[in-house]
Design a protein that fits this description.
By secondary structure, the chain is an alpha/beta fold. The protein has 4 helices and 6 strands; from the N terminus they run βαββαβαββα. It is globular and about 50 Å long.
């Protein structure tokens, strides 16, 4: 028997394969992850709590700050701050939270102590460049329902 949406939590949809760097790691470390093909790196504090992500937008913003940007620790540069949700949050509750957060495409998932667990990526449900992408995004969401 399948669980209802109200009974499911985020464990089925969380992406756990994402680079994690500390606030004391350098911007160069984050750039290495982007060069390796990752779209972002999660930055955590000493207790493994996420403080934000470093992505291409952070790189573009930082380059405008001058050459010393590349020498800075990640804790000293502007990061993209994302909303957080607990892993145990029910899928139905999360869907309601998503609907109230227009334009948010990624959510940081944390455990009960606030430690980083993974990311949930939310694909747009409107056509981006083709009807095929729209259908793929819609299908990915519909798979979460019984």
């Amino acid at each position: 028997m399948m669980e209802s949406v109200a009974e499911r939590d985020l464990t089925q949809i969380v992406r756990q394969t994402v680079p994690v760097l500390g606030v004391t790691d350098g911007v160069g470390d984050a750039i290495c992850r982007l060069r390796q093909g990752w779209d972002c790196a999660v930055v955590v504090d000493g207790q493994q709590r996420p403080v934000g992500i470093f992505d291409g937008g952070c790189l573009l913003t930082g380059i405008g700050q001058g050459a010393d940007f590349l020498e800075q620790p990640l804790g000293a540069v502007p990061l993209r701050v994302l909303p957080m949700v607990r892993l145990r949050t029910g899928l139905e509750t999360f869907i309601r939270q998503m609907s109230g957060a227009d334009g948010v495409d990624r959510w940081l998932v944390v455990d009960d102590e606030g430690g980083f667990v993974g990311l949930v990526e939310v694909l747009p449900l409107r056509p981006a460049t083709s009807g095929e992408q729209y259908l793929f995004a819609l299908y990915a969401l519909l798979e979460q329902f019984p």
